[in-house]
Design brief:
Elements lengths: L1 H6 L16 H12 L7 H16 L5 H17 L7 H13 L21 H12 L5 H16 L2 H13 L8 H10 L10 E4 L11 H20 L7 E2 L2 E2 L11 E4 L6 E4 L6 E6 L2 E6 L10 H18 L17 H11 L3 H11 L4 E5 L12 H10 L12 E6 L4 E5 L6 H16 L18 H4 L8 H20 E8 L5 H5 L4 H17 L5 E6 L8 E5 L3 H11 L5 H23 L5 H13 L10 H4 L4 E5 L8 H4 L13 E4 L6 E8 L4 E8 L10 H30 L1
Parallel strand pairs: 6-8, 8-9, 12-14, 14-16
Antiparallel strand pairs: 1-10, 1-15, 2-3, 4-5, 6-7, 9-10, 11-17, 12-13, 16-17
Helix pairs in contact: 2-3, 3-4, 4-5, 6-7, 8-22, 10-11, 10-15, 19-20, 19-21, 19-25, 20-21, 21-25
């Protein structure tokens, strides 16, 4: 710009104070006005200089031009790539993509290069849908579903599809399902967040190296804020899978987001980079903890620990301020409309409003439970640990509205509890692994740290954040405590580890480990319930802009045939192995289709939402085939998102699981099961959950069900391995 100003005889150059939203066409228009008719000979060099300035600003790099050209090349290559990686042309395309992504990039740099999620055709979605429900319906029910599907394709589908395509084609809409998925699946849900929130923890998220929970909390608070700083400054390395970039959009709301309750629909309160403090719970109170000194410097681990020591001394001096003070975080576990009613009353009180504002504007929440002893390494207490995280057993303190809460017991054992609406488990798992990776190399000496002096704190930190618990709030807390108790007897979750084999056996027989394990789950479910059911497995659609997930329906006609053969002694090993391989291949194909934007569940959901908005009478949308619940809900938690396999080998065998973030979720349907699993080379770890209706309190035992499912899963895995090996011996 300086060179251009010197070359062009103009008295002043008007440069916008903010370039946000400025486009190339707007720059071109400004350039023409600037040069006038008498200086058109300078148009090309001036345009080039403006282009360099614009791209340098946009990509925050002196190499902005190169980054701009890379983004355009990636946009083209990612749009034309196919799902068949064996195709020579696709191999060349993937090779070119991998070459372009080898160079450094900012966190969200690839987002605009990603293609939009395509809208499947009606015929494709309906054919796949009918195939998925056929094994689960009687012949009469399937005939009715088929007839209603044909009617839908002929009458309602064409114009609903056009409406959806109009949304997808809108330049301001990055993803046609993204906003509806958040609104309909999460924010409009009225049940307790105990049913939808997720937890994350791993074996090595436990340590004997700490004298108390405050030491562990200080270290992890420092590490999480370091990651937040990387996201805020867009210096966190973007994720690339097999050389192909994936969407990083969900990382924006890992920190500084809160789900606020509403009467009919919740909302997301998001502060992003401006959220620079933590809401810290200890004993019976919340405290504000700043993790930056004046000037913006991030505090050291020991400086944060000194603040926590002061909080500990204050809490022990003051003691509880109300008999229900420890249970106040349970309010966030209430059904959403009920919590909205209580919160609306609370914000009328200035003291309560100030406390809520401090919590809801925090980057995240930290709860150190000074009375809790998890003993997560003890095999006899693995159920207790999982129930603490997923069910708030004993009303374990956590503010469930926050994007995530770091929960630590008195010894330093703990994990994360996070709200599922703003981000998926893979994103939180990635952040979790990164924080624990830092921790592995940190050796802090806390022995000489003393509590910080009051005069060294900010005025906001010196305040006391308590709730004024009147009769309305007290009633709400009591309702929450009762609900948590009901959950504890009608739901269960247990950690289980299968240690006989992992990825090694499926890979030996050239099968996808994930698809192989899904077949084991199908067999275990049938052995436990004596029935087949609609099964959900999540697939990532982060290959697309603002991508989240798609559904893979794991119960197929091939999986049904496999389970029948596995459990019928009249079938020989060769036939069992043949059916297993056929079922695994179908599951693998379905996974690939879902990941590459060829799924159908989100498409059908979008059409149903449109039909609801325009009040269309669509018989198919009221049919049993559409309204069936997912009685088995499953998801794989990827391990080692941070370290590559060759890097992992540098660590001793006993330390490698440190980098694997395990976790769990509650079953999504009454009488259903949920399985969150992580498949490693020689073992499979998982959390198995069972959900009974609340009215079943005292009438059934969910603990018995999860134990039975775990036992049947173990039997299935043994039978599958034995069948494959026996069949291989016969063939040999």
């Amino acid at each position: 710009l300086t060179v251009m100003a010197a070359a062009v005889p103009v008295t002043s150059l008007v440069v916008p104070t903010s370039l946000k939203g400025l486009t190339v066409s707007a720059l071109q228009k400004q350039l023409n006005e600037l040069l006038g008719e008498n200086n058109q000979q300078y148009k090309v060099p001036a345009a080039l200089l403006l282009f360099v300035a614009y791209t340098s600003w946009r990509y925050k790099s002196p190499f902005g031009v190169l980054k701009f050209l890379r983004s355009r090349a990636l946009r083209f290559l990612l749009a034309v790539k196919g799902s068949d990686i064996k195709n020579p042309l696709n191999k060349a395309i993937y090779g070119a993509i991998g070459l372009l992504t080898k160079f450094p990039a900012s966190t969200f740099e690839y987002e605009d290069s990603l293609p939009k999620l395509p809208v499947p055709t009606i015929a494709e979605s309906m054919n796949k849908f009918l195939a998925s429900v056929k094994p689960l319906l009687s012949s009469e029910e399937y005939a009715a579903a088929e007839l209603k599907t044909q009617l839908f394709e002929a009458r309602d589908a064409p114009w609903l599809q056009r409406l959806l395509q109009m949304k997808a084609w809108n330049p301001s809409c990055p993803n046609w399902i993204d906003d509806w998925w958040l609104d309909v699946v999460y924010l409009m849900g009225r049940e307790s967040l105990l049913s939808t929130n997720i937890a994350a923890y791993s074996k090595h998220f436990i340590s004997d190296a700490y004298n108390n929970g405050l030491e562990r909390a200080a270290l992890l608070m420092h590490n999480f804020f370091k990651i937040k700083e990387w996201i805020d400054t867009e210096t966190l390395r973007p994720k690339v899978v097999g050389g192909v970039p994936i969407s990083m959009e969900m990382y924006r709301k890992v920190f500084g987001a809160t789900r606020l309750p509403g009467k009919e629909k919740d909302s997301v309160y998001f502060l992003g980079s401006s959220a620079q403090h933590l809401a810290f719970w200890y004993g019976t109170r919340f405290y504000r903890v700043e993790v930056r000194a004046q000037g913006g410097r991030r505090l050291s681990v020991q400086e944060i620990y000194a603040k926590l020591l002061r909080i500990k001394d204050l809490e022990e001096t003051k003691g509880p301020y109300h008999k229900l003070a420890r249970d106040v975080t349970g309010l966030t576990a209430l059904p959403r409309t009920e919590w909205w009613e209580v919160r609306e009353h609370m914000v009328e009180n200035s003291q309560n409003k100030a406390t809520l504002d401090m919590i809801e504007s925090a980057a995240f929440c930290v709860c150190v439970d000074k009375d809790k002893d998890l003993k997560v390494d003890d095999a006899d207490t693995t159920r207790h640990t999982a129930r603490t995280f997923l069910m708030k057993e004993d009303n374990a303190p956590s503010w469930m509205d926050k994007s995530f809460t770091l929960y630590v017991d008195k010894h330093g054992c703990g994990g994360l509890m996070f709200e599922h609406g703003v981000a998926d488990a893979t994103v939180y798992g990635d952040v979790f692994e990164l924080a624990t990776k830092f921790e592995h190399s940190q050796n802090e000496d806390f022995s000489k740290v003393v509590p910080v002096k009051a005069e060294d704190l900010t005025a906001e930190e010196r305040k006391t954040y308590e709730f004024d618990i009147d009769s309305v709030v007290e009633k709400g807390i009591n309702s929450a405590v009762d609900l948590i108790k009901k959950f504890s007897v009608t739901r269960d979750v247990r950690r289980y580890k299968f240690g006989r084999y992992g990825k090694d056996i499926p890979k030996k027989f050239k099968m996808s480990p994930d698809a192989y394990f899904q077949m084991a789950l199908q067999a275990a479910y049938y052995m436990t319930t004596k029935s087949f059911s609609l099964t959900y497995e999540s697939a990532s659609t982060r290959l697309f802009r603002h991508g989240r997930t798609e559904t893979i329906r794991s119960c197929t006609k091939e999986s049904v045939k496999f389970v029948e053969a596995l459990l019928d002694p009249s079938y020989d090993a060769k036939e069992r192995a043949r059916r297993l391989k056929a079922a695994v291949q179908v599951q693998t194909n379905n996974m690939r289709s879902a990941c590459f934007g060829e799924g159908y569940d989100r498409h059908i959901l979008a059409l149903r939402i449109l039909g609801h908005y325009v009040k269309a009478d669509v018989p198919l949308f009221n049919d049993k085939s559409i309204k069936m619940e997912f009685m088995l809900s499953t998801s794989q938690t990827p391990g080692n998102q941070i370290l590559r396999p060759r890097d992992l080998k540098k660590y001793p065998e006993e330390e490698r699981s440190f980098f694997v973030a395990g976790g769990g979720f509650m079953a999504v349907a009454d009488d259903g099961f949920g399985v969150c699993y992580s498949i490693q080379e020689t073992d499979i770890s998982m959390n198995i959950s069972k959900r009974l209706p609340l009215i079943a309190e005292g009438k059934a035992d969910p603990v018995k069900d999860t134990d039975e499912f775990a036992n049947n899963l173990e039997k299935s895995l043994f039978l599958m391995k034995a069948s494959l090996e026996a069949a291989a011996n016969v063939s040999a």
